[in-house]
Specification:
The complex is a heterodimer of chains A (about 150) and B (about 260). Chain A is α+β, with helices and mostly antiparallel strands and about 150 residues long. Chain A folds into 2 domains: about 40 residues; about 100 residues. Chain A is built from 4 helices and 4 strands. With about 260 residues, chain B is of the alpha+beta class. Helix content of chain B is about 35%, strand content about 45%. Classes of the chains: A alpha+beta (about 150), B alpha+beta (about 260). The interface between A and B is large, with 44 and 47 residues.
Chain lengths: ~150, ~260
């Protein structure tokens, strides 16, 4: 009886090894699966750079009152040209201007993309015109890099 | 002895499992460490909060410029308060980085009154100025920023004139004027020169041989000929800078 059991155990040894190997593989696999999303979290550095870039462009335009003048005068084409010039090639943008009552002001698209679903950053910027008829605008600038 | 060896062989699988678990733990902790380091680097390198604070300061400056442009053009002094109130309300609605609170006090130290100083003098000096103190607070979990700043917008005009008698009442007048923004030379957007004849202010034109030289640094020189019977030649310059702020100054020309 004893030799029979011993024989049985040594016969099953291979199967137990296989189960152990499977267990080991599944542990490794689950760790890799768990850590994978961590390494593919949104690229915060890229997003931070885009935000800084967008804010700097708006500040540059606003510094001498140009931004307010362009909005007040409804010069959307010139505003688009300025954005095209100041932003690096390859950066997608979409700019929307709202007045004090949060009504959209720009009658034309100030954008260089119609691509939907890009991972974009949004910058909200407050613009005050330097003119004697002071006006207040909220600018929403969406920026994205091609994926 | 044989039993011990058997035991060793039987535990081999468990040892492999423990080793795998240890490797998995090392992998996981390395990933977490890399992630944390990446996050802290991002926070150090790009701080959009600074840009936001700069934008708030820039907006406040534009409000002061717009308000003084309005007041200097004949608008009510209350425009300044109204514009500042609107700006404060707009900033307070912003929640990008936390709860924003902006407060202001207008400069009341003499010669300012309710943040405005208008002095369009008769001795070749004119000034249009607006001034306000701001305090901005931003509070959120982990962020508590306080910023105090002072905005002063001043457009100054200095006028000097000389004249030469050309015969009878005919006089050749030269007027030099300088425009300054916050004490630095600034360009004019538009200006008008006047001279006084029998209590009326007249604008010289081509019939007066009117000529203007623009030195490109905020200094302008105008010359004209006119029949002025009075021994005192009074001139006045009304100038608008590129921010739409208006300033005026009168001067009595000296004879050369």
């Amino acid at each position: 009886m004893g030799t029979f059991i011993l024989k049985m155990i040594s016969n099953n040894k291979g199967q137990i090894r296989t189960i152990e190997a499977f267990l080991a593989i599944s542990v490794m696999f689950s760790v890799l699966v768990l850590t994978a999303p961590m390494s593919s979290t949104p690229d915060f550095e890229k997003q931070g750079t885009l935000k800084k870039l967008g804010t700097n462009v708006l500040i540059e335009l606003d510094n001498n009152g140009t931004l307010g003048r362009l909005i007040e005068g409804g010069n959307w084409t010139i505003l688009k040209q300025s954005m095209d010039l100041l932003l690096p090639t390859g950066v997608f943008y979409n700019l929307t201007v709202y007045d004090e009552n949060l009504q959209r002001v720009n009658t034309q698209e100030v954008s260089n993309t119609n691509q939907q679903g890009l991972e974009a950053v949004v910058i909200q910027y407050l613009c005050v015109t330097q003119s004697s008829d002071t006006r207040f605008y909220t600018i929403q600038l969406q920026l994205a890099w091609p994926q | 002895m044989k039993a011990r060896e058997m035991n060793k062989k039987q535990n081999k699988g468990q040892v492999i499992l423990i080793a795998v678990l240890a490797m998995a733990l090392i992998l996981l902790s390395t990933q977490i460490y890399v992630f944390e380091v990446q996050m802290s680097t991002i926070n150090l390198n790009s701080n959009p909060l600074n840009d936001y604070l700069f934008a708030i300061k820039l907006g406040s400056r534009n409000v002061v410029i717009g308000s003084i442009a309005n007041v200097s053009g004949g608008g009510s002094h209350t425009v300044f308060v109204a514009n500042l109130d609107k700006w404060v309300a707009l900033v307070d609605k912003q929640n990008q980085f936390g709860r924003s609170t902006l407060n202001y006090t207008m400069e009341e130290t003499a010669p300012y009154m309710s943040g405005i100083w208008l002095f369009w003098g008769t001795e070749g000096f004119g000034v249009t100025s607006a001034s306000a103190h701001f305090t901005f607070n931003l509070s959120d979990r982990g962020v508590d920023a306080d910023l105090s700043y002072f905005i002063n917008i001043t457009t100054t005009l200095m006028v000097e004139g000389t004249y030469r008698t050309m015969g009878a009442d005919e006089k050749e007048v030269n007027v030099t004027f300088n425009l300054l923004n916050e004490g630095k030379s600034a360009l004019a957007d538009q200006f008008t020169l006047y001279y006084q004849v029998l209590g009326s202010w007249l604008v010289p034109n081509a019939s007066n041989n009117y000529a203007v030289s623009d030195y490109g640094n905020g200094t302008y020189r105008a010359s004209f000929r006119a029949s002025i019977s009075s021994p005192n030649v009074e001139v006045s310059v009304r100038i608008r800078d590129q921010r739409e702020v208006l300033v005026q100054a009168n001067a009595t020309c000296s004879q050369v």
